[in-house]
Design goal:
3 domains
């Protein structure tokens, strides 16, 4: 029986562990945290004060045959097939899957640690998201400046979602005519991927949100309440909502060459194998794959690795399928792959409902209960097929406006 060690108990690691056949694999999940968080829910804690159950016990999400070890991976010797944990335990394996994720690191931008400590953020913890919700409720007018501080961002649509939900909040609170809303981004457009930007940017402009493109955040001056970019631009703020930079897990690898300067695992984009290492795979946010860092990606990557471990042909096509909350009861999806351009998917109310429903079906999906449905759904929404259907049915149609 093959010993498979999965380092990380996030979306991809949990799904993979539950997928592998217990008759063929002796599966162990190693994770520093006993709790599993539904990370997309942080958006609604921060901007709507949601109090849903975002945390669950990781052990309860794993099938009974899966071994569970709560400890932090300190050093991974990929040549000797040994993981050394923080407590001093040594775990040996035949095959390893690195599902180590990424963490926020505000210290990379001068002044950002203090800003996040004061106002919170919606990409790290429930506590930080609750802090941001309190800051938003204390806001009485001025400039809300929201954006990402580095090109790497967990859930690429989240900056757009955040500013649109902030706009919806101040509008409902009667503060819209007292509020300037600014979205800043290091990219040359509001949403990085074209042609999806052609859907999203008109909505931002329709709602009076200013867009500051090519704004690479350099530092924040709390005394003057200004953000400065590397390019020399500046934004005056009253409420700063800044998505911190991200970095890979603080793990020592042997060889050290398997991670890049951001500590992301260097992963073959098709096979998901750790480059230069036998019997080692990586998935999820902690890789350097040129695709969205989102739960759906980890879901699809887990399926590819499960097939590879079974000795079956397995290739990841870079598929993305990110739900986007556009506020006002509207939603859409960012759908594409390595070879297919992102589809300009028109907003609708049903897509907004689907985004909200993910909070409920997520926990079932981790166990694999809904996999037949997902296989059908992902096939039906394949980018090439979806683009063809849209070309036939949306020609000349206008996207719905906010009422």
């Amino acid at each position: 029986m093959q010993k498979v060690l999965i380092v990380g108990g996030g979306t991809g690691g949990t799904m993979l562990a539950n997928t592998l056949d217990k008759r063929r694999f002796d599966v162990t999940v190693l994770s520093a945290s006993a709790q599993h968080m539904f990370q997309p829910g942080l958006l609604y804690v921060a901007f709507q004060g949601a109090s849903g159950r975002l945390l669950r016990d990781e052990r309860s999400l794993l099938r009974r045959h899966v071994k569970w070890v709560q400890d932090r991976a300190a050093r991974i010797d990929l040549a000797r097939h040994i993981v050394y944990t923080e407590s001093g335990t040594q775990l040996e394996y035949d095959a390893i899957v690195l599902a180590t994720g990424i963490v926020t690191d505000p210290s990379q931008v001068p002044g950002l640690s203090e800003i996040n400590a004061q106002f919170g953020d919606y990409h790290s913890t429930v506590t930080q998201s609750q802090k941001l919700w309190r800051a938003l409720n204390s806001f009485s007018g001025g400039t809300i400046a929201l954006g990402q501080s580095s090109p790497v961002c967990k859930c690429p649509p989240s900056p757009v979602e955040g500013i649109l939900l902030a706009e919806e909040f101040v509008r409902k609170k009667g503060l819209r005519n007292k509020t300037r809303l600014v979205l800043f981004t290091p990219y040359p457009r509001a949403y990085p991927a074209e042609p999806m930007n052609s859907v999203i940017e008109p909505i931002l402009k329709e709602r009076g949100i200013e867009i500051f493109p090519i704004f690479d955040l350099d530092r924040i001056d709390q005394a003057t309440r200004k953000m400065f970019s590397i390019e020399g631009d500046q934004i005056q703020y009253d409420l700063p909502i800044v998505i911190p930079p991200f970095t890979g897990a603080d793990i020592v690898y042997e060889p050290a060459s398997v991670v890049d300067e951001s500590r992301l695992v260097i992963t073959d984009r098709a096979s998901l194998r750790v480059k230069g290492v036998e019997r080692a795979f990586a998935l999820g946010d902690g890789t350097n794959l040129p695709t969205s860092k989102a739960g759906v990606g980890a879901h699809l990557e887990a399926k590819v690795i499960a097939r590879a471990l079974n000795g079956e042909p397995a290739t990841f096509d870079g598929r993305t399928h990110c739900p986007v909350d556009l506020a006002g009861g509207l939603g859409t999806f960012v759908i594409g792959s390595y070879t297919a351009r992102v589809v300009p998917y028109p907003p609708s109310r049903i897509k907004h409902w689907m985004k909200k429903m993910m909070a409920h079906i997520y926990w079932l999906s981790l166990r694999g209960t809904l996999e037949p449905f997902f296989e059908w759904y992902f096939a039906w929404t394949a980018p090439e097929k979806l683009a063809q259907r849209l070309a036939r049915h949306t020609a000349g149609k206008q996207f719905p406006a906010v009422k």
